[in-house]
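Pentatricopeptide repeat-containing protein: structure, please.
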Amino acid sequence: MVNGLVNANRVDEACKMVDSMKARNITPDLITYSSLLDGLSVCSRRCRCEPDVVAYTSLMDVLGKGGKIDHALTIFRTTTKKKVAPDAITYRALIDALEKVGRSKDAQKIKRLRFLANHEKKVV
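Here you go.
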């Protein structure tokens, strides 16, 4: 269904459908995310816009669930360089992926980054 919405240039609706799935504890699979990312990619090329935190988080989540954690971490570093602030969902996706494969030290580093980011928001 997500792929159909993307093919019909209804990417916003496809994003909402994925959000709705998550809200009902339905985990989108790699095909769903791939369709969504394809749609976002086409959309961003058309309007010459940059992906936002939601798009980057979706990509990191897919990569993490697919076992490509180092790629997900590369995307994370890219977002911070582009000044796209990660949100709680971004951190959770990375931490879950890292813990799933036993990389607890790396997960702790991400938790520390999340703590520091939250602390900075409160101070400013």
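Notes: The chain is about 75% helix and 0% strand.
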